[in-house]
Amino acid sequence: MKKIAIIGGGPASLMLAANLDSAKYQVTLFEKKKAIGRKFLVAGEGGLNLSFKAEVKNLIHKYHPSSFIAPIINTFSNTDLINWFDSIKVPTFVGTSNRIFPSADLKPIEVLKKIEARLIENNSNIKLQKEWTGWNEDGLITIDGKTTDPFDIIIFALGGASWKVTGSDGRWKTLFEKRGIEVKSFRAANCAFKVDWNTNFINTHQGKPLKNISVSYEAETAKGELCITKFGLEGNAIYALSQKIQDTFLTGKTPVIQLDLKPTMTVDQIKTKLKNSKLKKITDILKQDVNLDRASIGLIKQFSDKETFLNLDLLAEFIKSIPITLVGTDDLDKAISSLGGIALTEIDESFQLHKIPDTYVIGEMLDWFAPTGGYLLQACFSMGWVLAQNLNNTK
Ligand SMILES: Cc1cc2nc3c(=O)[nH]c(=O)nc-3n(C[C@H](O)[C@H](O)[C@H](O)COP(=O)(O)OP(=O)(O)OC[C@H]3O[C@@H](n4cnc5c(N)ncnc54)[C@H](O)[C@@H]3O)c2cc1C
């Protein structure tokens, strides 16, 4: 029987270990923390969004590069994931905005326990508080600095580089670089961006949500919501654009997003509302006829000049496209996910490293991007499942 070492105990590796053929492989999973799945549990604190209900072809377009994710999610889709969770007695439901969650009566820790039970049923040997520390001079892996017995196959699923407290600290980067493997620098993704607010505005509107808005940046538009914070803006509408925004920061330029406060209305429809109003004060018209809340009106006032605010044609256009300059990014450690990681050119289509045979890499430690909405976990689970099938089918 071949021996497999899986390093890291997150969603990608758990799905892998749960599905490897136990008649063919003897599996040992090394996790450096006291427990597996710590980031999975953190994800559960805001509602454990496992995946997204959409046709697979639409799902795939949310990922960058989508050409990398397409064959993976085509092989193990959102429907396959729901069926798999059903098989371990974790029923799911489709919540608001088509997000998929475990049944409301199951806490994230209970979901994790059911996944762990499947691993144990599948004879995986889980070793906790065991940290992979590199390779020795013969290319054998070391755990806590000591060379292990040889394994036939090694699979890394060490996660990204945010929320270090969960164990996903990106410390593995230098170890791979020493082996000549290209690892792209980590940057925050699905994170807050800094805005230089006017003091009066932020003192009044800090913590207020902007609902049913859209944000555009460089020909991409994301609908959803934002929250105004002392730091700047956060929320799914800006998270979805975080890769493009971060790429602009890398070039040394300052990104300017366009906020649309009324994505369901055209400029002409807003103009008609503004011009047909019986009210005199523009603030009252915006509130009562255009149905904008105080925070939205405050935003318009902060970013428009007097001429725009008093000219109803210009004002209608402004409501649909408020330019907001982003002056910085939140800390990597606070981000929901990280950009960067092992360059996709370093692996073949079965996740195997070109430079180290019989060694595979899956999950967030690879250099791909997905927005929030269940896309991250879906891709990590899909990679685990696909790699398990590939290995089960090899002679
Ligand atoms: C606040 C927050 C909320 C989120 N919410 C969602 C959500 O609702 N939906 C969604 O799809 N995604 C969400 N995510 C993202 C999602 O949790 C991650 O993308 C996913 O957990 C990545 O899985 P992974 O298996 O690649 O790695 P991880 O889950 O990061 O696991 C990697 C594991 O490897 C271990 N490890 C690292 N180095 C070593 C080493 N040297 N030796 C041994 N073990 C090691 C770590 O301790 C860790 O347990 C959220 C993330 C955060 C931070």
Notes on the structure:
This protein is of the alpha+beta class. Helix 1 runs parallel beside helix 16 and helix 4 crosses helix 16. The strands form five sheets. A seven-stranded antiparallel sheet has the order 17-16-13-14-15-12-18. Strands 6-2-1-10-20 form a five-stranded parallel sheet, with no helix packed on it. A three-stranded antiparallel sheet has the order 3-5-4. The chain has 16 helices and 20 strands. The longest helix is centred in the C-terminal third of the chain and has 18 residues. Bound molecules: flavin-adenine dinucleotide. The site of flavin-adenine dinucleotide has 37 residues, from helix 1, strand 2, helix 2 and helix 16.
Keyphrases for this structure?
alpha+beta; FAD/NAD(P)-binding domain; 7-stranded antiparallel sheet; 16 helices; 20 strands; 36% helix; elongated; binds flavin-adenine dinucleotide
Low confidence ranges: none
Basic shape: elongated
Spatial arrangement of strands, main beta sheet:
17-16-13-14-15-12-18
What name is given to the CATH topology of the largest domain? FAD/NAD(P)-binding domain
- Structural class by SSE content: alpha+beta
CATH homologous superfamily designation of the largest domain: FAD/NAD(P)-binding domain
